[in-house]
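Example record for the data management plan.
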Amino acid sequence: MNKRKISFPLALLSCVLFINSARCQQIPEFSWSVGTLVPYQHYLRLGYNFQLDESLSSLRIYSQLGVTPSNYNQFIMETSIEDNEIGKEYLKANLKGELGFGLGTQWFYKNWNLDVGINLVRYQIKDKSSKELVEAIASQNIGLRETLDDLTGNSAVFSDLYSNYLISPRPNALQLLVKGGYEFPVNKQKSLKLGVDIGVATTMHSFVHIDSQRTSRLAEILLATVTPTLSDRLENLVNWKMIPFAGIGLVYQIPARNVRSY
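Corresponding structural encoding:
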């Protein structure tokens, strides 16, 4: 992973949070929210709200857990993958969302808000044979196919291993989210709100980890042969350039206790 690509937005976000939190005149409110961003992911979010000094604006810092359901995955892949029809259909059937996490900040003016966040979206393709994965995702790589033909042609044991040895690729996408929205108060105390959003997510970096049971020397050779190409193809396939979404969620805030400002 390119650490510089990740560390700069995180550092920038941390500086903004520190500068704004220093201006707060209240003990922060604790808040939680649950909702969905269609067709991006479901989320559970934990945050702290700060009222900014002498203004109608406020700031919410949050962390979240999220998962992309299968029907969202299928829609994203259908609209995002154009150059590999076989790979697209395979991922639509086999790529499953796993629990990911993120952090971000929301700036509020009255009930309007602007949200900037960073999110790690995680996927898995569970227990598939190397042969199945290569034919579905990396069949266009002629060099890999020729290498595997030579290895399977010279060894019946290797041929059986190639057809039956199970591996589990785990693609990941580090994404930047920008969205705007409005929160409608639901009760008189304004502690419960209904939020609606529109926004976009874009991938900054994608990477793949492949889980396996390395039980023999031949398994090591097989993995060394297929892993670089499979990882490269999967990184490209989950590197969604732009995902527009619309969201809805419930936000609950525990009211803060006013304190004297110095």
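Summary line stored alongside the record: The helical segments are 3-21, 70-80, 85-94, 130-137, 142-154, 156-164, 217-237.
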